[in-house]
Amino acid sequence: MIDWLKNINKNSPEFWKDYLSKFEKKSNRYVILCTETSGLNPKKDVILSFGAIAVVDNSIRIGEVFEVTIPQYRFLHDNGMSNDFLLESEQPKLSESQAIEKLIDFIGNATLVGHRIHFDVEMINQALEKLACGRLKNEALDVEVMHKKLNDINNANFTIDQLSAIYKVPKNERISTTDDAFTLALLFLKLKSRLHL
């Protein structure tokens, strides 16, 4: 049994081994993550882009940003979807495996924050499975859940736009996942303060 446990990550890629080693101590860093996908089924759909920004000590770290577009041409073609936005995107373009590796390096052991973040995490876990890796170990916070907890709401859902209006977060054009991540970072800081986290 012990030999099996020792070999559990033996064949994992180096980036994954490095990621797992970061969880020996807790981080005070948050990574606000936004993922654009081709749909809402983690088993069938694919990731099209990531936007992420770091928050440390209640400050948004403008210099710590991760953004990438993943040209999933085959998937889009096979499903009759347009890929024009991929061609027009000014974000860096990487293959899915390269993007996942760089994302894992960027997030490290940070707490992940997003809007319906568990869907984003599941999409990433599906991509990690293709690379013979395990599942994400990061803690996760959801701005929608935080809002519901703060206001003792159980049976309603809120879009990013609705939450932005409630907490008076300035509107931006939100034309990329990075724009969404910045909006979510502003929301997160307001909710974090009100919840005394």
Please tell me about this protein's structure:
- The protein is of the alpha/beta class and 197 residues long.
- Helix content is 43%, strand content 19%.
- It contains nine helices and five strands; from the N terminus they run H-H-E-E-E-H-H-H-E-H-E-H-H-H.
- The chain has helices spanning 2-6, 14-21, 73-78, 84-88, 96-107, 117-130, 143-151, 160-166, 177-194; strands spanning 29-37, 47-56, 59-69, 111-114, 140-142.
- Strands 3-2-1-4-5 form a five-stranded mixed beta sheet, with helices on both faces.
- Helix 7 (143-151) runs parallel beside helix 9 (177-194).
- The longest helix is centred in the last third of the chain and has 18 residues, at 177-194.
- Mean pLDDT is 87; it is low at 1-7.
List the helices and strands and how they pair.
Blueprint: H1 2-6, H2 14-21, E1 29-37, E2 47-56, E3 59-69, H3 73-78, H4 84-88, H5 96-107, E4 111-114, H6 117-130, E5 140-142, H7 143-151, H8 160-166, H9 177-194
Parallel strand pairs: 1-4, 4-5
Antiparallel strand pairs: 1-2, 2-3
Brief digest:
This protein is an alpha/beta fold and 197 residues long.
Number of helices: 9
% residues in beta strands: 15-25%
Spatial strand sequence of the major β-sheet: 3-2-1-4-5
Order of helices and strands: HHEEEHHHEHEHHH
How many E-type strands? 5
What is the makeup of the main sheet? 5 strands, mixed
Identify the overall geometry. Answer: globular
Poorly predicted segments? 1-7
User: Which structural class is indicated by helix and strand composition?
Assistant: alpha/beta
C-alpha termini separation:
40 Å
Mean pLDDT: 87
Please give the share of residues in helix.
40-55%
- Rg over CA atoms, rounded to whole Å, is 17 Å
